[in-house]
């Protein structure tokens, strides 16, 4: 029967096989990239949210002012005054459309009624909203005089200039985010090299020590933790070299004593009784 058991210890993350320098550079670069993505997403979103709040306040302000002006004109039945209010409203460069209806839903004044109908302007009675094509902010304001509703003013403010400004800002923020990301990655690589280079030197020294080269020392001039580690490493190697020299001298002294002794001496294996060495 085939063995299908699974051992979690067999799983190895790819990053674990790389050097310390690579790990530091990769993780730091990832952090910088995440920060850059956050900047690119957060700030344009906040800018758009604040801009939409400002356009809503502007639409309400214009709607309230238009409703008041129309209430005076409608109450007096002054048709020229109604036309004057419409002409004044057209001076607003952001005005996309305007529809003025009386209490019987008859249209008494318009500005670009085709656009108003295309955006379903009457839906603004229920909630202020952005048109389905995303280009117009729609609002409806009742015309009230002496607590009597005389009609409604439907306004649409163009969002094209706002969207163009947001797109420009998003593009600028994208370039800034990219620059931050590239600079961050560069410093991540430099930082990882500064941290890992002394460690690489110590690893190289340890490997040479394991091959019997007792002259190996690490040269690190920093005064941080890595510098302290290098100093401790060099001190340890000095002590090991002294201990190894003492051991060699002791071994030589014992061998000289063993070989120059006039009496026969030998060394044998206690289990096999095999002679391992015999003096001359």
Summarize this structure briefly.
The protein is α+β, with helices and mostly antiparallel strands and 280 residues long. It is built from five helices and seven strands.
Question: How would you describe what is shown here?
Answer:
The protein is an alpha+beta fold and 280 residues long. 58% of the residues lie in helices and 15% in strands. The chain has five helices and seven strands. It has a five-stranded antiparallel beta sheet. Helix 1 runs antiparallel to helix 2, helix 1 (20-76) packs antiparallel against helix 4 and helix 4 packs parallel to helix 5. The longest helix has 57 residues, at 20-76.
Keywords:
single chain; 280 residues; alpha+beta; two-stranded antiparallel ribbon; 5 helices
Fraction in helix: 55-70%
Main sheet specs: 5 strands, antiparallel
Ends apart, CA distance between termini: 65 Å
Strand content: 15-25%
What low-confidence regions span 5 or more consecutive residues with pLDDT below 50? none
Q: Compute the number of strand runs.
A: 7
Radius of gyration: 43 Å
Q: Number of helical runs? A: 5
Secondary structure category: alpha+beta
Strand sequence of the main sheet, in spatial order?
2-1-5-4-3
Q: What is the helix/strand order?
A: HHEEHEEEHHEE
Shape: rod-shaped
Would you tell me the overall average pLDDT? 80
